[in-house]
Write a structure and sequence with these properties.
It contains 50 helices and 28 strands. It is α/β, with parallel strands linked by helices. It folds into 6 domains: about 240 residues, Leucine-rich Repeat Variant (Alpha Horseshoe), CATH 1.25.10.10; about 110 residues, no CATH class; about 80 residues, Leucine-rich Repeat Variant; about 120 residues, no CATH class; about 150 residues, Immunoglobulins (Immunoglobulin-like, Sandwich); about 210 residues, Rossmann fold. The protein has a 6-stranded mixed β-sheet, with helices on both faces. The protein has a 5-stranded antiparallel β-sheet with strand order 4-3-6-7-8, with no helix packed on it. The protein has a 5-stranded mixed β-sheet with strand order 11-10-9-14-17. A hairpin with a 6-residue loop joins β22 and β23. α11 runs parallel beside α13. The radius of gyration is 36 Å and the shape is globular. The two termini are about 70 Å apart. It comes from Wenjunlia tyrosinilytica. InterPro entries: ARM-like, ARM-type_fold, PBS_lyase_HEAT. GO terms for molecular function: oxidoreductase activity. This is CHAT domain-containing protein.
Amino acid sequence: MGLGGHRMQRGRRGADASDAAAGLLAALGSERVERRCAAAGVAARSRDRAVLGALVRMVGDSSAQVRASAADALAGRRADLVRTLADERTLLSVLEGALLDSDRTVALTAGLILRYSGGAPGRRRLASALLHRTSAVRATAADALRGCVEPAVVTALSEALRDRRPGVRRAAARALVGTAHDGAVAGLGRLVADVDTETRAAAVEALSQSWNEGAGEALASAADDAEPVVREGAAKGLERHAALARLPRLLDHLERGGLPARGAAETLVWLLGPHLHATPEDFQDARACPGSGAAPARQRVLTALARALDADAEAAPEADTTDGGVELRTAAMAALGSAPDAPAAVADAALVSGIADPAPTVRAAAFRGLWLRGSATPEAVRAAVTAVAGGAGEWEWAAALLCGAWERSGRETGAELNALTALLRHPDAERRLTAALCLCPAPEEAVEEVAVALDDDDSAVRRAAAASLAACGSPFAHEALLFALVRPDAGVRTAAEDACADAATDLALPVRLEAALRDPMPQVRVAALRALGRRADWRGDRRAPEVIEELLHDGSAVVRLQAAYERRLRTTRAAPPKRDQERAEIPYATRPHPATVGAIEPGEGYGRRLTEASGPFAEVWRAHRDAFHSRGKPPADRRHLNTWLCEAGTSERVARSAPLRCGTPYELALNIGPLMDDSAVLNSRESPLPDTPSVAGSRLHVLLLSDDFDVPDEPWPLDIPVSGPSATARIPVRTPVGPRSALLHLWLFADRTLLVAAVLRAGVGAEGHGYHVVVGHTLGADPLGPARPSHGTDVLVHSGIGRDGEHRIAVYGGPGHRFAASLNDARALEALKIARTALVAAHFTTARDGRVHSRYGPTGALPPAAARDDLARLARLGRRLYTMVVLSIGRGAELDAMLRDTARVTGRPARIQITGEETRLAAFPWQLVYDIPCAGGETALQDCPLLGDWLAGRLGDKPPASCPHPHPENTLCPSGFWGFAHEVAAPVWGPTASGALEFGARGGRPDAVVAFSTTLDATLRQGHLDRLNGRLDPVEKCPTIPGLRASLASTSRDVVYFYCHGRRRPLPGSGYPEPTLEIGRDEEFAPDDLYTWAQSWPREHWGDNRPLVVMNGCHTGELTPHTLVDFVTVFQHLGAAGCVATEIALEQSVAGRAAELMIGELARGRPVVEAVRTMRWLLLRMGNLMGLAYTPYCHSGLVPGFEPEPVRAARSTAGGDGG
C-alpha cells in the first residue's frame, strides 16, 4: 500500500472515531438510566475530551446508579482528565457538587479527580470543602487532599484538625502525614490528647513522618498513652530513622573532588535525597569524616550542596534552561528548604538567589524553601509581594511565605498583611480563596476587607471569608456575619450560617448570637435562633428551652414560627439533631402571610393550628413535619431489643457509664418494643426484629450464657403482644467476684430458632468502663411463617470471643441441655488442615510418573471395600475433631443421646445450627466430626450393619433418618459423622448477613444463571449443563465475566451456579493468596470485584428475591480463621440467602455429579441442609465420600421459595387432562 493509501486509511479511522464519539455522547445523554450506565462503562476506555467531559458531568446525574457508573469509569482516568478540566473549568463545579453524594465511592472519586486532575484550582476547591456544613463532605475532602503540601491546603487542613467531628479530625490528620508546617504540627500535637483513640492514632502516624522538632515532643508525650495502638505508633515514630552508615564514605569521596561540581550537586540531590530530610538527631551516631573535626555529617551534606550550587552558577553564569538543569535546581532548592538545620548563610543565600531564577518551578521551590525555613528576609518579602499579584506558578508559595512571615511577626500590620489583603480583590478567584484561607482568623485591620468577600461570586471564597470572620473576636466581624444571615442572597446566608454553626465554643460568637435574639429586627432574631439551633453546645444548654419558650410569645409571627420549629425538633427526637442532618430553612419575609400570623397565637397549640392553616409558611411547616417524621425514625410497627441493668429488687437503673460492683446481684431488664432512650444496646436501630405475624402474639425465650456472670440455667420466657411493646423481663445476674472486663451472651429464641444474638460487655470493679450491649445478629425473616418447615433448630452451637481471644462455644438443645467449651484459632486452623488433607488423600492419588489422578475414575465410584477403608480413616480423624471440641464440653454422652433421641422421636435427622459473632467458627469441619468412641487403629473398627446395607443398595434411595443399631466402642457407621447423621448448617453470621429462611421467588419455576469455565472438559461440561436444564428452568448460561456481571445485576435469580475453577493468586505487594473464580477462558474475578459490581445495584438489590449461590469449583469454601475476604462472606453480605461451597479441589466429573444430586433435591422443594445431606448419602452408596467436601453456609431452615417440581408436574398433568 502506498503513502496515499495509508493517509486514506488514517482518514477513515479518524472519521470512524468521530462517529463513535458522537454515538457515545448521544448514549451518555440518553433519558434511560440503563443506557447511560452502559454508555459510561464503554466511555471508560475513550480518550475523546468531549466524552470525558460528559462523563464528568454524569457525576452530578440525578440517578445514583448513573453517578456510581460514571465514578467507576473515571476512577483510572486522572491523567487523561487534566487537559479536559483545564479547557472546561465549569466541570470543577460539577465535581465539587459531587462531594455531597451519599455514595462514599462517588464522592471520593470526585475529590481525587479534583486533587490530581484539577490542578491548583481543584485543590483549592477541596480546601474550601473542608469548611462545608456536612461532616461527610469535610472528611471526603480531607481524604482526597492526603499528602498535598500547598500552603493554602495545609492551612485549611490544620484548621480542620479542630473540627467537632472525630471522623473529620482523623481524615485531616491522615492528610497531613509527614508535614513540617508549624501550625499543622501544633494541631497534630493537640490531637495526641484527643478523646477519640483512632484520632490519636492518626495524629501519631502523621507526626511519625514529620521532621519538625515539635513532632518529636508530641510523640514523646504520646508514648505514655493509655491505648497500646497509640503507644506503639509513637514508639515507631521515635525510632524511625536508621543510622546513616554509608554517608561518611560518600562525603569523603565528594570532598576529595571525586566528582565534578555539577555531579556533586546531582549526587547529593538524587542519592542522598532521603537523608536530607532527616532530623539532626539521626546524624548523632554517624561517624565524622576525616578532616571534618566535630562537624556533624548532616551539616557537611548541606554545606556541600549549597557550594555545589554556587559552583554551578560560577561555571555557567547564565542559568541552564534545559529540562535537566531546571529539574536539578528545583530538587536542590527543595532539599535545602526541607532541612531546617542547614547552615543559614549558604542555604538562605542559595534560596534567595533561586527567587530570581527564570524557571517558575525553581522560583516556586525557592519560595517554598524559605517558607519552610522561616527565612523571610526583606528581599524575599519584596519578591513575594510582587509574585502573589502577578507571578506564574510560584504565587501560591509566595503567599505561604507572606502568611508565615506575618504569623511570626505576631500578626502585625506590614507589607505581608497588606499584600494578603490586596489579594482578596484579585480578579482570580483562586487567589482570593488563598487569601481568605490564609487570613483565618481575620485580623482587625482586615475585617472590613474580609467582610466584603462575603459577597464574592465564588461560593468557596464566601465560605472561607465567613469562617475567617467567625473565628475572629472582633465585634465588627460578628456584626458582619449577623448582617449576612439576613441577606437576600441564599449563598451569602448559607455561608454565614455554616460559619456561625461551626464556630468554636470558646469564641465570643455564640454569645453574640444569643444577644441577637433581642435584636429589634425580626429577621435577625430568626436567623440567630436558626444558627443557634444548629450548635450542639447550645442545644445541650439548660437555658435553651427557656429561650425558645420566651420566643414563642414574640411579637413577630416569623420569630414564633421559627421558635415553634426549634421546639418541635427538641421534643420529637430522643437525641439532639445532628449537625449534618439537613435542617430545612424557613424562608424569611418582611411580611408574613396572614394565615400564618393567626396560626401560632400563644397558648392555642401551634401544632393543631398549623395543620389547619393555609399559606406559604404553613405549607413549609407541614412539609418539614412530614419529612422529619419519615427520616431517621423507624416505622411505628418495628420493634427492637431494649435492655439495661437495674439494682437488684428495685427499678433503679444503673447508668451505662458507671462501673459494676464486684460480686453484686443485678437484674438484666429486657424489653421488645420501640427504641428506648436509655437502652444499653448500641446498634438496636440497625437491628429490628422481624416484622412478621408469627413473632407478634407469641412466646419467646431469653437464654443467658457467661463465663463471668452468674446467670440462670433455664431460658426466661418473654411474651410478645400482637402490637405494642412487650412486658419487661427482669433476669437476675451476679457480677464476678474480682475486677475484670466481663462478657455475657444473650440469645432470643422463637421455637428454638435464634432471632437475636447479642453480647453485653461490662467493666466490673472500681476501674470499670461501664457497660453496653451490641447486637451481633438479627434474623431478617419470619421464623414460624407458613413457608417454614415444621421444625426449627434442634441444637444451636454458638460462639463468642472471650477475653483471652478464644472462641467460647455454647451448645443449647432445649431446656436442661446446655454445654460450654472453648476453641482457639490455632486449633481450628490445625483441624481444618488435617480434615482437608484427609479429604484430598481420599480423592486423589499420585501415579509413578508424578501425575495426580482421581481415585474415583470416570464412574465417580470406588469398590465397597475401598470406600469402607476410606471411611474408617476419616472416622479416626473425625474422632480427633470430636475430642478437640465436643468432648471438652464434658457432657458429650448427654449431647450424643440428645441428638439420637431427636432423630428417633421425630423420625428425621437432628438439625444443628452453627452461629457466632464472627465468621471464623463456621470454618471448622463440623461435617467430619465423628461421635462414636474409637480406640486402636482402623483395623479395630467393626462395621455397623447399616454400612453394609447402604453400600449394597438394600435401603433404597432415601437416606435413613437415624441408625437403628446400637453403637458400641469401635463401631464404623456413616451415621457417626455429623455430616451424614445430622443436617448441619454453618452460616455467615453478623449484622450484615441476610439471615434469610427462603431463597428464590415465591411460586413459579426456578430461574437460574450458570457461570462456567470454558477450559473444563467440553464433553463433561455440556452433559452436565444439559442435565441441569432438566432441573432448573430457565437457565441462563454465562461464559464471560461481563455477562456474569449483567446477570447478577438482575433481581429475578433463584439460583446462581458456578461450574468453574477456583484459584488462588498472590495479592500484589503482599503475597497473600487471594481467592478467585475463573469464568470463560482465563478470565478471573475476586471477591472485591463483587463489591465493585454491587455499587451500581439498588440498595435492596436482592431484598425480595434472595438467590442461593452454589460455587462448584476448587476451594470455593476454603475458609480459615485467618481468611481476609472470601466469596461466601461477600455473597451473603450482598444479600444472597446462602451459599454452598467446596472445601478442597474436586475432579470435574465428581463435582458435576454432586451438584446434579443436590440441585435435584432442591428442585423437589427440599431444604438446603436436607438436600446436601441426601447428596452425601447418595454419593456414599457409589463408594464416594466427597459429599463431605461440600458445606452449606446458610440458615438451617433455608428452603426454596419456588414451586417444587412434583407440584409443577401435577399441575401440568391436571391441565392436560382438563384440556
